[in-house]
């Protein structure tokens, strides 16, 4: 029966063809993206005499800052501050949409529906940790960054601890982003290849060149405003498909009933086992730690927080981002139920119409709305819009980290304005070209996927833990955050768990237990003697327990390890004297518990206190004598 089934599969895949309208939709998305770079690079740049603060504090700026402000060039943004931070004058709504677009990648749009389809609705509970994350970021972490007005979040680690902690976190970030770049391009390119037959590497290269172009010219402004309209395209593309699909199946009631019968509805799996992929506790606790660690301190997020003029605007942007993310994630989760409602009696993966779960949604789009002109093109434009937004954010942010944290922080180089421009823009080109080059090897080297997943777990857990240790444990010292303890302990433990689980999974010793599917409704030509809807799962009892943990627990383990070990080591080696710490380095939620004497040091960690508006600083009801200063923050680490 293999020959008839192959013929039938080929017949079905003939639907996976783009028309002229679809190509126009996709091409229009690329052209608009490039146009944003040209607009913000040449027609909407800050002039040499403009200031970065809407309150016009130019008269109070130091001479070196004034000279930096007046430095111009004829290529793209007028200053590095404008290129990386938009002169700190961006608006809340576009930045919120950019934050949303940065989170949403092709993996999100394609992977979330597949997760619900295969494992049920427990993951939908992730919207609760997302909302809690917004509160935590705005109250605990954001006020510290806004008060210090840093160019890089990792600069905080040098002020709070020492340059080595900053270097460790920034190098880890750069490596992680470099490995993630080609995957951001490859996933949507593979989807485009599926519906058009276009070469994966050619389309990936074209999209990458467009992204390099508008990021190189327009900087953060082009990234933010391109993200803003791309996220609209993403949302519309998914929502339109969902609405049409829901109507075609007979409404939400039919979809819900089929999901209930198929065992997909489960919001309260209170199983205490940490081995199950999705449980109430894993999603709630693990989701909160992951989302907070990423959105509170990761430079891709903090850079856009710092592009806003004040703390109030930054909070508004984050709340808009949180609401938008919750809505979009909910739409993607509902899409998973829609997919099950469509394929509840004929699973495409079982009859080999798709080879991976991530292809379920593109397959559904072509089968259900592929006959409508422009709909496949709109959907693929949305998927690629997600990829472009993630790629542009990574390029812009990583170039800034290479300048601020690697060149200036690690190697202690003080480049001129011209050299800084060359480094930043050159980094964008090099990183983009490197991503293009890795497209040719990413599908052939399975190990790179394991390494990337491991570094992501290490990065989120370790950096989140170190920042939390610094902001919420005032007596922590450098030895607790770095050396052979704290940060390194968290990195090693989370990396060990992640790497071990990845290898165990690759060896087939750990297999995710998917919910049952059916092929009873499939036509006979699609079913063969090898069709199997009830796979047998290996006995995992012999696998090392930590390797069997749900992926949700890796980040919490990393964060708690850093905080607990760092705190203990700090006490053993001599805790920091709280009377001599700059409260600006500590989260304002703890200010009421700090000794009164410490507020005599308020602002000493700030390198250019007169440069920053007091509006950005958290308020305290404890009086501060501004005439008393006792030295730099790094000199106050008492052991």
Describe this structure in words.
By secondary structure, this protein is mainly alpha-helical. The protein is 62% helix and 0% strand. The chain contains 21 helices and no strands. The radius of gyration is 25 Å and the shape is globular.
Instruction: Provide mean pLDDT, rounded.
Output: 83
Beta-strand content bin: under 5%
Distance between the termini: 76 Å
Described by strand count, sense and barrel closure, the largest sheet is: none
Class of secondary structure makeup: mainly alpha
Specify Rg, calculated over alpha carbons.
25 Å
Multimeric status of the protein = single chain
Shape annotation:
globular
According to DSSP, the number of beta strands is 0
Low-confidence stretches: 1-5, 48-75, 610-621, 623-639
**DSSP helical segment count:** 21
Helix content: 55-70%
Order of SSEs, N→C? HHHHHHHHHHHHHHHHHHHHH
Q: What topology does this entry show?
A:
Layout: H1 2-13, H2 20-43, H3 63-70, H4 80-85, H5 92-103, H6 106-119, H7 127-148, H8 155-160, H9 163-196, H10 200-249, H11 252-261, H12 280-297, H13 299-305, H14 311-343, H15 360-369, H16 375-410, H17 417-442, H18 446-472, H19 478-481, H20 487-506, H21 554-573
In short:
Helices cover 62% and strands 0% of the residues. It has 639 residues and is mostly helical.
């Amino acid at each position: 029966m293999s020959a008839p089934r192959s013929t039938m599969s080929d017949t079905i895949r003939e639907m996976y063809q783009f028309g002229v309208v679809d190509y126009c939709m996709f091409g229009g998305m690329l052209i608009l993206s490039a146009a944003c770079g040209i607009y913000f690079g040449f027609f909407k740049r800050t002039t040499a005499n403009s200031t970065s603060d809407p309150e016009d504090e130019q008269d109070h700026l130091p001479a070196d800052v004034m000279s930096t402000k007046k430095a111009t060039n004829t290529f793209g943004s007028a200053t590095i501050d404008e290129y990386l931070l938009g002169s700190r004058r961006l608006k809340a709504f576009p930045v919120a949409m950019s934050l949303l677009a940065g989170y949403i990648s092709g993996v999100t749009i394609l992977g979330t529906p597949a997760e619900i389809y295969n494992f049920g609705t427990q993951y939908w509970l992730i919207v609760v940790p997302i909302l809690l994350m917004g509160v935590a970021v705005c109250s605990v972490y954001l006020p510290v960054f806004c008060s210090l007005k840093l160019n890089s979040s990792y600069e905080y680690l040098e002020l709070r601890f020492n340059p080595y902690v900053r270097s460790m976190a920034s190098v880890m970030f750069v490596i992680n982003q470099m490995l993630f770049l080609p995957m951001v391009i490859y996933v949507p390119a593979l989807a485009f290849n599926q519906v058009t037959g276009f070469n994966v590497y050619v389309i990936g290269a074209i999209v990458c060149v467009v992204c390099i172009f508008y990021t190189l010219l327009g900087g953060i402004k082009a990234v933010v405003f391109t993200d803003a309209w791309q996220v609209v395209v993403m949302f519309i593309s998914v929502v339109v498909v969902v609405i049409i699909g829901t109507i075609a199946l007979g409404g939400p009631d039919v979809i819900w009933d089929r999901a209930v019968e198929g065992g997909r509805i489960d919001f309260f799996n209170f199983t205490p086992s940490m081995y199950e992929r999705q449980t109430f506790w894993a999603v709630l606790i693990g989701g909160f730690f992951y989302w907070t660690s990423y959105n509170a301190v990761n430079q891709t997020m903090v850079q856009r927080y710092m592009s806003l003029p004040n703390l109030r605007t930054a909070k508004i942007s984050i709340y808009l981002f949180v609401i938008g993310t919750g809505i979009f994630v909910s739409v993607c989760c509902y899409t998973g139920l829609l997919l099950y409602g469509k394929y509840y009696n004929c699973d495409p993966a079982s009859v080999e119409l798709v080879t991976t779960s991530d292809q379920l949604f593109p397959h559904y789009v072509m089968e259900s709305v592929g006959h409508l002109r422009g709909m496949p093109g709109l959907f693929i434009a949305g998927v690629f819009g997600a990829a472009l937004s993630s790629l542009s954010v990574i390029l812009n942010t990583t170039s800034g980290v290479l300048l601020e944290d690697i060149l200036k922080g690690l190697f202690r180089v003080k480049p001129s304005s011209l050299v800084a421009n060359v480094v930043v823009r050159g980094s964008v080109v090099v990183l983009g070209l490197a991503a293009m080059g890795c497209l040719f090897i990413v599908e052939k080297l399975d190990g790179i996927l394991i390494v990337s997943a491991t570094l992501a777990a290490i990065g989120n857990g370790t950096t989140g833990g170190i920042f939390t240790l610094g902001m919420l444990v005032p007596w922590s010292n450098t030895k607790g955050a770095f050396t052979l303890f704290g940060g390194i302990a968290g990195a090693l433990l989370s990396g060990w768990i992640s790497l071990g689980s990845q290898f165990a999974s690759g060896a087939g010793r750990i297999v995710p237990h998917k919910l049952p599917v059916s092929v009873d409704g499939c036509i006979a030509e699609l079913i063969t003697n090898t069709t199997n809807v009830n796979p047998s799962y290996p006995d995992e009892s012999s696998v090392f327990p930590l390797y069997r943990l749900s992926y949700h627990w890796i980040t919490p383990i990393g964060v708690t390890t850093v905080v607990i070990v760092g705190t203990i080591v700090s006490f053993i080696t001599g805790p920091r004297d709280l009377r001599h710490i700059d409260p600006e380095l500590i989260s304002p939620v703890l200010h009421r518990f700090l000794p009164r004497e410490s507020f005599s040091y308020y602002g000493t960690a700030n390198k250019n206190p007169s440069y920053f508006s007091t509006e950005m600083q958290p308020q305290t009801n404890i009086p501060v004598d501004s005439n008393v200063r006792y030295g730099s923050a790094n000199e106050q680490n008492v052991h």
